[in-house]
Amino acid sequence: MMPTEEVRQVPPPAGRTAPGGSGPPALPSRSGVADLPAAPSASPVEGAADPGVALAVRGLRKSFSGRTVLDALDLRLRSGEFLALLGANGCGKSTALRCVVGLETPDGGTIHIHGREVGAARDAESVRLRRRTAMVFQQVHLVRRRSVLDNVCAGALGRLPLRHSLTPLLFPRELREEAMACLDRVGLADRAAEPAGRLSGGQQQRVAIARALCQRASIVLADEPVSALDPAAAEQVVGLLAELARDQGLAVAAVLHQPLLARRHADRVVGLLGGRVAVDAPAGALTEADLEALYAPDRRTAEQEYR
Ligand SMILES: Nc1ncnc2c1ncn2[C@@H]1O[C@H](COP(=O)(O)OP(=O)(O)OP(=O)(O)O)[C@@H](O)[C@H]1O
Predict the structure, then answer these.
(1) Which partner for 302 in 13, 151, 249, 295 could form a disulfide, CB atoms 3.0-4.6 Å apart?
(2) Domains of the chain, first to last
(3) Which residue's alpha carbon is at the smallest distance from atom 17 of ligand 1?
């Protein structure tokens, strides 16, 4: 078994260091930083000034009631990369993502988005940077009685004047067209007019992803997006996340409890143990020893569930 204090780091195979796509993107690439001011030329955070690095987390700390959950966590995510975040229940995966998007306030550490540091305060720059990130949850948080299209349009509310949020009737035509393109991207354009609650769980999760696209996020963080889905729907949703990274240059990180799905679709796997990175490897290089290190002492449970 691997020593838990060490990170098993495996370099990516040639050609996978900067995942990039082939084939025409269905939507404009969101990987660029054109609408952000130039990042500082030098940064104390390793990789934060590298334009290919969409998200750089360094030394992230978080405790709840004196119990350490994140213990100086380091994480980097590149544009065009699909990273699977693995680890046993309670190891801090959700907390890490929630700190990045601002749903939790870290006790320490730094978060850089496209090379710019996100402050703990809700200053305008940090809010603007965080809008580049979208979170997709296991619970899809759609308004079930509203149309699929209205739900996707809601992804844009953060950048629209307040009055547009009063009623979907005020959504501008251009927004509806953009939302349709996002729905088309996830293969659900033909369901646009239906109430969201009428769709299956897997389809609703794809609507939630379309909503993230309509937010124009360049970083998509998915927290157990397929835990409530059957194997076929899970395969489709994880495959879609991988495509968004590969074809549109989005930086995508997904918490998964299915190592086989991670192996099949992700570029890289990061495994957390005790609030730190214990494994960081190309997905295809994930070993049994890695899984044992991450899920021990519950290995037998993991074997039963995931094979
Ligand atoms: N708001 C909170 N208040 C108190 N404790 C919390 C809070 N949020 C998370 N925790 C605790 O922090 C620990 C890590 O939780 P987290 O949800 O990040 O784990 P996880 O790795 O995502 O687990 P799972 O795979 O079960 O979703 C858990 O022990 C959890 O109970």
Answers:
(1) 295
(2) 53-132+219-307 (3.40.50.300), 137-217 (no CATH)
(3) 94
Express each pLDDT in 119-170 by its tens digit: 766 778 888 888 899 999 988 889 999 999 999 999 988 887 776 666 666 7
Give the full edge-to-edge strand order of the sheet including 276-282: 8-9, 276-282, 268-273, 82-86, 251-255, 219-223, 133-137
Q: Which whole-number Å values give the CA distances from 1 to 108, 260, 286, 292, in the listed order? A: 31, 20, 14, 7
For residue 89 and ligand 1, the question of a CB distance below 6 A is answered with: yes
Buried b (16+ CB within 10 A) or exposed e, 173-203: eebbebbbbbbebbebbebbeebbeebebbb
For ligand 1, mutation pick of 62, 73, 86, 94 (most atoms within 8 Å of CB): 94
Q: Which amino acid is at 201?
A: G
Token pair in block for residue 66? 């004196």
Q: Across-strand partners of 272?
A: 277
Query: And the tokens for 143?
Result: 């308004």
Report ipTM (2 d.p.): 0.97
Q: How far apart are CA 277 and CA 275, in angstroms?
A: 7
Phi first, then psi: what are they for 185, rounded to 5°?
A: -60, -35
Total-model pTM: 0.83
39 touches ligand 1 (CB under 6 Å): no
Q: How far apart are CA 166 and CA 49, in angstroms?
A: 39
